[in-house]
């Protein structure tokens, strides 16, 4: 997602990140990679706030960010529920003027992408992860 924001925004653009719970491994890794990519490509990460994977909390956090940073260009969220919350807030404060990204590939966010309301999400096929893991294990087993 960070790479797509870099492609869409000019250097110096302001990005806020809405993360999962502090200390949560998935949130930490997504945040670490996103921050590094954004900063190395000259986008300004002006705030990182936790919304604990929760849509309503993300809406509240996004509303405060949009009111505090009137020139905010994008909100990057670490899951799709939070992206939908951020979208609700942006629709109230700056409709169509803030790029929003998610992470999970949920159908409701894919629909929002098709309609142009959300920029993108990462579809990492969570429903297939178990299948991928089992196939990988079988590939790694020694032949007897």
UniProtKB/TrEMBL annotation:
Location, primary (coarse class)? other
Provide this UniProt record's keywords sorted from A to Z.
Signal
Concerning InterPro entries, the annotation shows:
Peripla_BP_I (IPR028082), SBP_2_dom (IPR025997)
Where in the cell does this protein reside? Cell envelope
**TM regions (residue ranges):** none
Q: Which Pfam families match?
A: Peripla_BP_4
* Residue span(s) of domain Periplasmic binding protein: 1-138
By sequence similarity, the record places it as follows:
Belongs to the bacterial solute-binding protein 2 family.
* Name of the protein in its database record: Substrate-binding domain-containing protein
Instruction: Provide the species name.
Output: Parendozoicomonas callyspongiae
Q: What is the lineage of its organism?
A: Bacteria, Pseudomonadati, Pseudomonadota, Gammaproteobacteria, Oceanospirillales
